Amino acid sequence: MNIWKRASVALKDGTSLIAADDLLKAAVVKATNHDEFSIDPENALFIYRHVRATPSSLKPLISAISSRVTRTRSWVVALKGLMLMHGFFLSKTTAAESIGRLPFDLSAFGRQGNSRMSSRSGGFNLFVRAYFAFLDRRSILFHDGNRHRYDEESSVMIRLVIIRKMQVVIDSLIRIKPIGESVRIPVINEAMENVINEILEIYGWICRRIAEVLPNVNSKSGKRQADVALKIVAKSMTQGEELVKYFVFCRDLGVANAQEIPDFVRIPVDDVIHLHEIVWTDKEEEQGGEAEETDECENSEERTKCVEGKEEEEMERELVHEIDDLIKLDDEEKEEDEPSLAPPVLDVPDLISL
């Protein structure tokens, strides 16, 4: 970095440091400085240790990060702010489960303002938007106030829904891609290592849960559960192939923890055939069952069971709609941020003279 750029970075961050009125806010400024060639792990670790020791400090810290990223037009500051937030999850900070939806919105980052500046940093802005889309979705899914959580007492349907949601999170992860030589910039490379770590953890969780839940899906489970399970299996098969391509892409870019491509688990063909048969057979029997159910409900002794069964069915229907809405939203975001055929002009610094 040339001397003028260093001076500019020092001036911008210096002003914010002067305005910081406590050690934590100063640590946030230092951890999210304007220097794309400098990572400040010390201040990030200081923040994480402080939150683990004093969970009540999380709220003012998030407020400080939110204020920092919403006021900036620098992709470096915005990305470092997202990485700092992501670190709460990667470091297994329990208090982070209370965050829920992120208190700031970077979904349109870089789309407004100076058009010349936006065109020069277009690829980086796209990277920030993709990282935000993933992190916001992850934070919502892991929120401790969620109505449905994955545990031993959860119904098979709730487990299936959560697995499907986690697959959508994986989709948002593999849309985080640096463009051109930008991965050689330290902050981008660090962000990509975070992405790979997250993929390995979440995809491993998905594989374990699929193996755990699928044996519980049978002809007695009902068509709706089998239908969701079949979608999960189909997605798992295509997602495994997409992940292999993504890891090859990251390996070729030199991302350190993507040099070995994992052996992504494949679902046995017999399980796919079994689920397919449950979904597509006995349709006439299902239609006939509706009439029988009506007769049973007329019997006062069966009325309570009938009501409970309808309530469970209604809950399952709502969960399926919830998945469909999430996937539709995810597809819309994918189309909205699809890079154009003409590569953007990137403001890549002179790495040779460093």
TrEMBL record:
Q: Which UniProt keywords apply?
A: Coated pit, Cytoplasmic vesicle, Endocytosis, Golgi apparatus, Membrane
BP GO terms, sorted: clathrin coat assembly; clathrin-dependent endocytosis; vesicle budding from membrane
Source superkingdom: Eukaryota
The residue ranges flagged as biased composition, category Basic and acidic residues, are 300-309
Which Gene3D superfamilies does this entry report, sorted A to Z? 1.25.40.90, ANTH domain
Question: What InterPro entries does this protein map onto?
Answer: ANTH_dom (IPR011417), ANTH_dom_sf (IPR014712), ANTH_N_plant (IPR048050), AP180-like (IPR045192), ENTH (IPR013809), ENTH_VHS (IPR008942)
Q: Which residues form the ENTH domain?
A: 16-149
Q: Residues annotated as region Disordered?
A: 283-315, 327-354
Provide the protein's localization.
Cytoplasmic vesicle, Clathrin-coated vesicle; Golgi apparatus; Membrane, Clathrin-coated pit
From start to end residue, where is composition biased (Acidic residues)?
Answer: 283-299
Chief location of this protein within or outside the cell: cytoplasm
Q: Which GO terms describe its molecular function?
A: 1-phosphatidylinositol binding; clathrin heavy chain binding; phosphatidylinositol-4,5-bisphosphate binding; SNARE binding
Q: Name one GO cellular component term.
A: clathrin-coated vesicle
Q: What is this protein called?
A: ENTH domain-containing protein
